[in-house]
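Field log, afternoon session.

UNIT: design team B
ACTIVITY: writing a sequence onto a fixed backbone
BACKBONE:
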């Protein structure tokens, strides 16, 4: 009992002795003075400065031992007592009190005015920015303490979470130097982000792709996130609307925007290289879960910071891993994509530095996310530039293949022209030799008219023979051309050697359909890639078009190779098979043969088909539906 009484008396004795901050001669900056101050928690929220500053009340103050002061009593006012003794001789120094915790809901600084009591200066995140005496993003107050004076100041604080308090005393030159440096580097930081945002907005306007739209939203969300974290948004963008501070900072809305935009950007980034439906589902699921956790955190059961952060990491890790595996499966590992996700995890961790400190240095603990965001934006931009480079390489590769095909075609044409030229040359030499022989014979035949007439007769016969041969050759060429066009004389077994299966027919139909160029029927784009069954897939909207679409074989219900043969027979004038005969040859129902022959007849009427002048393949592209 005696020991307990002694302890209480000792505690009261200590409490009555206020902590004093001494301003020495060489002092210009006294950092982290929080544990050199005294505090009292007003659980009634009714105390005023007159009551708190009274001599009888001083024994209730206790010295602060933790930067958080207290973790509980979030809804109660905290009174802080600060006693400063100026031992300096230099009266040119002006001293300022500064709170780096700029996101206090309410702070009232009471400066002693002698017999007039205390002068209150109220500000905070719940009050317009213009209410502050010094228009700075942090809370700063002039101490007005002269050399040799000792003054006691009181600070009344209301907070919305157990933040880490960071109080400092600075001279005027230290305060100005620190402020200029801080605003300079923050200006540089936002300038870089705005330049990157401008680049991405240009890509949105120029290329009109979802990837660049979501990358722009991600950068904008990061800027908004930073403006809420460093206080510049409140100072310059919404100084008269303090309610935005709650939306921006305390509800973690900006953090949610950063997460959602990162997930969507990552999905479209991977999609540019490889389509992955599983990644799409996981991305949407991750977004839904994060939105649900956000709503629960703000309107339901609040989770502790560390479990919430760990769960967020695990949720984001799933789509990131699947996306990275998709890139690795096609040999397109992106280091910048991976590091950018790491930066996102650091941003999420930084969001909870209000609840626990990652570093001992308060400046590093608060501002380390700014260079991380810049690195993330630069890495994401590099990923986009690498992707654009990859697409350009693919475009060049396609052009190279096209150029190679044209060169091969030109080579074949050149060889054929050379052969034709050689034949013409040989024929010319033959005629020249014949002319030389005739000239020699004419010289010989000049001796006698009889021999001359005989020679003329021989020459006429030779010319007649050549003419007949030329006419015969011309008729043969026309006959061959006509046979080629009509494919005259092919039985079904012979026809099957040319078109043996569905694969061959689809390939032939694809080459015939797109021999000029490809035009997407959905968006009008003219670039495509060959897909399954020799179809074409638009490079712009991903629309797939089958070779049989909008042709005579559209919605065909029996083997296409048999339909080819029916079309081939329909173009022949020398063959007239009955439906029963055709059904037996092709092993098809008689009604099926009749229906398709009727469809061919409609196609012939539609285009005015001439069996003698046009091949059967011209009917293949007629669309009747």
């Amino acid at each position: 009992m005696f020991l307990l009484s002694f302890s209480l008396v000792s505690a009261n004795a200590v409490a009555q002795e206020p902590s004093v901050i001494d301003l020495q001669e060489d002092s210009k900056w006294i950092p982290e003075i929080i544990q050199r101050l005294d505090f009292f928690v007003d659980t009634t929220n009714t105390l005023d400065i007159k009551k708190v500053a009274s001599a009888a009340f001083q024994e209730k103050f206790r010295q602060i031992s933790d930067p958080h002061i207290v973790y509980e009593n979030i809804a109660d006012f905290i009174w802080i007592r600060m006693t400063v003794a100026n031992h300096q001789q230099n009266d040119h120094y002006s001293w300022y009190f500064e709170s780096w915790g700029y996101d206090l809901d309410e702070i009232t600084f009471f400066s002693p005015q002698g017999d007039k009591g205390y002068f209150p200066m109220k500000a905070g995140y719940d009050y317009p920015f213009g209410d502050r005496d010094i228009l700075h993003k942090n809370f700063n107050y002039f101490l007005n303490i002269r050399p040799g004076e000792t003054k006691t100041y009181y600070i009344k604080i209301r907070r919305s979470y157990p933040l880490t308090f960071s109080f400092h005393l600075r001279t005027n030159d230290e305060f100005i130097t620190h402020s200029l440096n801080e605003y300079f580097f923050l200006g540089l930081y936002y300038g870089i982000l705005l330049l990157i945002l401008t680049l991405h907005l240009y890509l949105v306007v120029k290329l009109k792709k979802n990837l660049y739209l979501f990358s722009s939203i991600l950068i904008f969300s990061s800027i908004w996130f930073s403006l809420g974290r460093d206080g510049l948004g409140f100072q310059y963008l919404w100084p008269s609307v303090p309610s935005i501070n709650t939306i921006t900072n305390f509800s973690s809305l900006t953090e949610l925007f950063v997460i959602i935009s990162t997930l969507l950007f990552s999905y479209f980034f991977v999609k540019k290289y490889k389509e992955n439906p599983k990644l799409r589902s996981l991305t949407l699921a991750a977004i839904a879960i994060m939105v649900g956790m956000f709503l629960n955190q703000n309107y339901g059961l609040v989770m502790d910071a560390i479990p919430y952060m760990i769960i967020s990491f695990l949720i984001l890790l799933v789509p990131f891993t699947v996306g990275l595996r998709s890139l690795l499966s096609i040999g397109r590992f992106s280091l910048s994509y991976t590091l950018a996700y790491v930066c996102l995890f650091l941003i999420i961790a930084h969001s909870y530095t209000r609840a626990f400190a990652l570093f001992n240095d308060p400046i590093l603990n608060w501002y380390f996310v700014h260079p991380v965001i810049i690195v993330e934006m630069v890495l994401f931009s590099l990923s986009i530039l690498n992707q654009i480079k990859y697409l350009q390489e693919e475009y060049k590769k396609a052009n190279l293949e096209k150029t190679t095909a044209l060169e091969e075609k030109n080579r074949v044409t050149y060889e054929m022209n050379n052969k034709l030229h050689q034949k013409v040359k040989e024929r010319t030499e033959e005629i020249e030799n014949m002319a030389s022989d005739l000239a020699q014979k004419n010289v010989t035949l000049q001796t006698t008219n009889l021999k001359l007439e005989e020679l003329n007769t021989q020459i006429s016969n030779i010319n007649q023979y050549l003419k007949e041969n030329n006419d015969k050759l011309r008729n043969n060429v026309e006959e061959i051309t006509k046979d080629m066009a009509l494919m005259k004389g092919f039985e079904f077994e012979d026809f099957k050697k040319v078109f043996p299966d569905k694969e061959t027919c689809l390939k032939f139909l694809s080459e015939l359909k797109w021999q000029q160029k490809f035009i997407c029927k959905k968006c009008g784009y003219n670039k495509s890639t060959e897909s399954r069954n020799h179809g074409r897939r638009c490079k712009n909207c991903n629309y797939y078009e089958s070779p049989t679409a909008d042709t005579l074989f559209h919605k065909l219900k029996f083997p296409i190779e048999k339909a080819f043969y029916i079309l081939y027979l329909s173009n022949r004038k020398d063959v007239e098979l009955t439906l029963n005969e055709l059904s037996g040859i092709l092993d098809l129902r008689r009604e099926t043969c009749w229906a398709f022959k009727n469809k061919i007849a409609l196609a012939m009427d539609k285009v005015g088909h001439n069996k003698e002048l046009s091949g059967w393949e011209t009917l293949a592209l007629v669309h009747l539906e």
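LOG NOTE: The longest helix spans residues 369-445.
NEXT ACTIVITY: expression trials, pending approval
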